[in-house]
Amino acid sequence: MGWALNRDTLARPHLATGALVDLSPGAPTEVPLHRQITRLAERALAPLTRAVMEAARGALVTS
Questions:
Q1: Within a domain: 44
Q2: How many domains does the chain have?
Q3: Which residues span the domain enclosing 28?
Q4: Does some domain include residue 20?
Q5: Structure confidence by residue, pLDDT tens digits, 35-56
Q6: I need a labelling partner for 48 at 20 to 30 A (CA). Which of 3, 26, 33, 55 fits?
Q7: Within a domain: 2
Q8: Any residues with CB less than 8 A from the CB of 21 and at least 6 apart, and which?
Q9: Could you tell me which of 16, 18, 22, 17 has the C-alpha nearest to residue 3?
Q10: Confidence of residue 16 (pLDDT cuts 50, 70, 90)
């Protein structure tokens, strides 16, 4: 058994098959997301960080 917060678009097919169960139907849970990386890899991961941030801005709810 486990729990997770998943994007609706990611979870929807699994909810439809019963592989996942919505524990609070109709009640969205919005939480801030944070990305952590080691400072040693920060420069090397900068392009990936920018791409993740850009994709998130287009797909996730922002407040």
A1: yes
A2: 1
A3: 8-59
A4: yes
A5: 788 899 999 999 999 998 898 8
A6: 3
A7: no
A8: 15
A9: 22
A10: very high
